[in-house]
Amino acid sequence: MKKISYILAALAMTGMLSACSGNQSAAESSATISTETVTKPSAAESTVAAFTEAATDSTNPPTHDAISIPIPSTADTASIIPEDVTVRIGSLKGPTSMGLVWLMEQSEKGEAVNLYEFTMVTAADELLAKMVSGELDVALIPANVASVLYNKTQGKIAVIAINTLGVLDIVAADDSIQSIADLKGKTVYMTGKGTTPDYVFRYLLSGNNMSEADLTLEFKSEPTEVAALLKEQPDAIGLLPQPFVTAACAQNESLKIVLDLTEEWEKIQSDSKSRLVTGVTIVRRPFLEENPNAVAVFLTEHQASAAFTHSNPDAAAEQIASLGIIEKAPIAKKALPYCNITCLTGEEMKTALSGYLQVLYEQDPASVGGKLPEDDFYFQK
Question: What class has domain 168-268?
Answer without folding.
Answer: alpha beta
